[in-house]
Amino acid sequence: MKNSKREEVIFHSATKLFNIVIDIETYPEYIPWCTKMVINQRNKNEIFADMYVKYKFILVQKFGSHVKFDKNNLMITTSYIEGPLKNLTTKWHFQEINKKKSKIIFDVNFEFKHYLHQKIAETFYPLIENKMIYSFKKRADDILD
Predict the structure, then answer these.
(1) Residue-by-residue DSSP string for 10-27
(2) Is the pTM higher than 0.90?
(3) Topology of 2-144 in CATH?
(4) Rounded to an integer, what distance in angstroms lies between the CA atom of residue 24 and that of residue 39?
């Protein structure tokens, strides 16, 4: 299983950044490869959703997830339900440094069902992670400034 933990300081409020990440319906507007989000169920502190992802030369893949969120502690965790992976978990934690500066901790674990896919993903994961983090930062800059 591949694990990555990343910390970033971002010049926006932790609460506002949390709100951007939990607004999963808007992901197709700015997350690379995300073509569609379907909310299957939403409760007080959880969402069941399907993300549809399209990479070059690969058919659209559906990733079903269970998203739990805690607005008081500014945490979001995602557990994998179905799709091309064997397992996927993510955790976002937003820590306020001051009103205009936050520390974001992003932790991800994933494993593909097939060994070859896993090795390819591990090779390209740093590029994918950088692109995704950049997309969230740019979204924050675009809608919060």
Answers:
(1) ESS-HHHHHHHHH-GGGH
(2) no
(3) Alpha-D-Glucose-1,6-Bisphosphate; Chain A, domain 4 (3.30.530)
(4) 9
- Pseudo-torsion of CA 111, 115, 119, 120, nearest 10°? -90
Per-residue pLDDT of the chain (145 residues; tens, 9 = 90+): 677 899 999 999 999 999 999 999 999 999 988 999 999 999 999 999 999 988 776 788 899 999 999 999 999 999 999 987 788 899 999 999 998 999 999 998 877 777 766 677 667 767 778 888 899 999 999 999 6
Question: In the numeric block, which tokens belong to residue 97?
Answer: 């440094």
Phi and psi for 60 in degrees, rounded to 5?
A: -60, 135
Instruction: Report the Cα 68 to chain-centroid distance in Å.
Output: 12
Report the residue count for the chain.
145
Partners of residue 42 on adjacent β-strands = 47
The structure tokens 């400034």 sit at 145
Domain boundaries in the chain? 2-144
